[in-house]
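User: Thanks for the earlier help. One more: Dihydroorotate dehydrogenase (quinone). Can you show the sequence and predicted structure together?

Assistant: Of course, both are below.
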Amino acid sequence: MYHALKPLLFQLPPEDAHRLTVQGLAATLSTPGVSDLFRGRYRYEDRALKRRVFGLPFSNPVGLAAGFDKDGKYYKDMASLGFGFLELGTVTPLPQDGNPKPRLFRLPADRALINRMGFNNEGVDALARRLLRDGRPPKVILGGNIGKNKVTPNESATSDYVTCFEKLFPLVDYFVVNVSSPNTPNLRALQEREPLTALLTTLQELNDKLARPAKPATNGKLGRPGELWQRKPILLKIAPDLTQGQLDDILEIVDATQLAGIIATNTTIAREPLITPARRVEEMGAGGLSGAPLRERSTEVIRYLSQQSGGKLDIIGVGGIDDVASAQEKFAAGARLIQVYSGLVYAGPGLVKKIKKSLVAEASR
């Protein structure tokens, strides 16, 4: 169905097409009878897909990357596509509109996107309310990707991350600290050793303070403030544009702050090599490039981090995954889990099932 609609969707501005697609998914899943057929089409699970990573039980290793469902409006619908985990956000303490439109662009010849969204979201309180109200999809891990508001200076950024961490702590299974988006001014400066170490140390201290012996949630609902929880895995999402020396610094920081893992990588500010004419790319302006052109660099970063850590670092691979081969490449480089986003735009929702089936076939050889 998606491939039949894709030419029409690609005639619309990308943000409008995204909204219509997820709204259409929600409407389909709310239709009796049709809902069961839809879920049956995309359902595919096998014991061989199960993973335990940073202490969490994943039903399968294919996840939805942050940015697709920033405000938690469609996470239960997206779970129907067969994801093992969903990452919500990036969310900030206060609501913000993000950058002026247009801010999302397709590069069909390159199977890529350029975005300068700028952490547009309704704020952490709105996300927390939805999670409390709607509960969680069965057997799906939820992650919370947190950032800072654009108006918050870097020297005060820690307070923004702390606010998001505290409000989402009882509601998500793991956290991702996003300091690598190129679309919030000066945000990437927080990747430098001193500010990043200070930020992550503060969050780990808060993690210890909030953690308590685990108490199961009731009635299949998410936990609520006041319930008892365990310490949450904290991951760091890094840019693909870091130098080898900066990656070495990241590894030292991960060790010093006892992070659970790394997400490699965010979007890139690089623009080569692209098939799309340079003049057209220049007209699109600034923003992070995602999709197939990011595939090689993302894999390089994963491989380097895995090799330098002796294979001990838990890595979520993301960047340029739009078919079975690109997914397998990430696992071979050292990723324990993977995430997709841009690949869904070009390959469609069947991508998740195709990757899972390939992993089961590989495990049976």
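User: Great, one quick takeaway?

Assistant: Confidence is low (pLDDT under 50) at residues 222-226.
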